[in-house]
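dumping this here so i dont lose it
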């Protein structure tokens, strides 16, 4: 599928979660107070040692002269009309007034310095993030489907710093940052955008775009960049599901059809609909999970396990619980089971999104 010539190119940017800082007005107020404190301290120092200063106008230095001297000294190098002539006054200028002048200038240019420091800090955080990021999850699209998928993953123990959001809308990325997720601003059908999300090192990719054609392009690009990642995609129209599978998606969920089936099931049997809804809501009630076979279960039949086994994944074959080939269980098998939800995340067992096709 070719890209249209008139299609607008979205600027690409990686946006890490921002740390909570004071607002601009509060920062300016703090700097103003600090500058006034420095000025007041300098005025007090000069006024207390006014005998060691000489004013070219009348020879003496009062409180107003001390304020004038402190102001021109802190903001410039002084005009020379008021000068320290005693040894103590000159020593105080070297040890106290000069450091106060440097502090005052730092406060004045604090905004510029903060911008430069923040930019350097962000560059360092970005480099460290790229270095440490491994086996993460890339979620393309932060709408209703993307949010629900992320909630399910987090309920199974996946940390927020192991999730990267890709979306072309800057406001959506800002919302993701506010919730603690790293965001990549850009068009996910472009390989350079997915490379910024470190997709080549990702364990799994969730495609939750608004358009089916966009999902196909994202799946093609993602599979080209990462041959081993598990790719799960959502489509609106069921007729587009085979196209997405051919594009490299391991599992395709038809969102409209799935919602329709759940509605139909709820009409026929409200209780069965409630059970199904409970199963797809991870972390509450009953959960549908995938886990490996433990050594104590090797050689046993499916019905002899402690959990309620629904399917057995053996290699690339998905066997039903009543399939004679499912028993006895093998050490390399994985079980799809229904368990009571636990508040404790699973240890050393990353969440699974389903068997690969």
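and the seq i came up w/
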């Amino acid at each position: 599928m070719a890209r249209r010539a008139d299609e607008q190119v979205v600027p690409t940017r990686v946006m890490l979660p921002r740390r909570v800082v004071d607002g601009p007005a509060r920062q300016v107020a703090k700097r103003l107070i600090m500058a006034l404190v420095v000025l007041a301290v300098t005025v007090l120092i000069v006024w207390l040692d006014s005998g060691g200063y000489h004013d070219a106008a009348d020879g003496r230095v009062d409180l107003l002269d001390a304020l004038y001297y402190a102001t021109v000294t802190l903001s410039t190098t002084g005009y020379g009309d008021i000068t320290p002539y005693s040894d103590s006054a000159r020593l105080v200028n070297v040890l106290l007034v000069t450091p106060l002048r440097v502090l005052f200038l730092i406060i004045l240019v604090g905004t510029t310095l903060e911008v430069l420091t923040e930019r350097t800090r962000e560059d360092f955080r970005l480099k460290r993030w790229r270095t440490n990021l491994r086996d993460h999850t890339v979620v393309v699209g932060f709408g209703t489907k993307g949010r629900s998928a992320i909630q399910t993953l987090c309920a199974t123990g996946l940390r927020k710093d192991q999730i990267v959001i890709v979306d072309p809308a800057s406001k959506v990325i800002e919302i993701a940052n506010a919730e603690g997720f790293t965001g990549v601003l850009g068009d996910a059908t472009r390989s350079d955008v997915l490379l910024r999300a470190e997709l080549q090192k990702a364990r799994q990719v969730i495609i939750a775009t608004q358009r089916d054609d966009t999902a196909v392009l994202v799946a093609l690009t993602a599979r080209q960049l990462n041959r081993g990642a598990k790719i799960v995609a959502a489509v609106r129209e069921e007729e587009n599901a085979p196209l997405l599978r051919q594009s490299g998606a391991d599992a395709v969920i038809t969102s409209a059809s799935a919602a329709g089936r759940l509605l139909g099931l709820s009409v026929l049997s409200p209780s069965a609909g409630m059970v199904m809804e409970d199963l797809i809501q991870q972390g509450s009630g009953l959960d549908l999970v995938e886990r490996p076979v433990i050594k104590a279960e090797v050689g046993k039949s499916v019905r002899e396990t402690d959990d309620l086994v629904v399917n057995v994944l053996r290699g690339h074959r998905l066997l039903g619980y009543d399939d004679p080939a499912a028993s006895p269980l093998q050490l390399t098998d994985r079980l799809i089971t229904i368990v009571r939800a636990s508040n404790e995340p699973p240890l050393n067992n990353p969440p699974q999104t389903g068997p690969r096709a």
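The first strand starts at residue 13 and ends at 15.
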